[in-house]
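Long-time lurker. I teach an intro course on protein structure, and each term I like to show students one example going from raw sequence to a predicted 3D structure in token notation. This year I'd like something fresh instead of my usual example. Would anyone be willing to generate the tokens for the chain below so I can use it in lecture? Attribution to the forum is fine with me.
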Amino acid sequence: MALMITMTAFRAKNPELFEAHVAQRKEAARSYARNLAEFESSVGGRAFGRKGQDGSIRIDGVRFPFGSALPLGWRLKQNRRDSVPNTKTMEGKLLAERLASLSLPGAKLPGLPSMPWFAVQVDRVAADWYLVVHDHRPKHLNSIDHALWEQVPVAEYTAAVKALQAVA
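-- Reply from a regular --
Happy to contribute to a lecture. Here you go:
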């Protein structure tokens, strides 16, 4: 059975909603960069991690300079290059907690209520337009607060994006 893909377009009823979301994301990114730089400076290595589909970043461990001694609380991964907290030790447990606190949250922040993480913003200029791609059973669309978001025809959304791209 082939998977049927459907698209649904939404527009924020209040453009300030998205502006508040952008401001929150910028502040979160600044705070993340500052905290990460402080952490890297304190441990003497370069952090590595993973980026999620929602824009989140999870820090998994540190790459210490080649040839340096492994600090207390760390263990080498199998690749012999990356170090992760050794959660069998008290120091490692504390390091794991610290790494978890460094993570950058995803795009689903309080300033953008009820929009699912997989909502795709096509253009930053189109700040109040979202396109949601889903299968033919759109149960997640029930979580969208329709007091804040209005469903619009995909053709209207596409026309708005094309008009913005023509200007750019």
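Some talking points for your students: The mean pLDDT is 77. The chain is about 35% helix and 25% strand.
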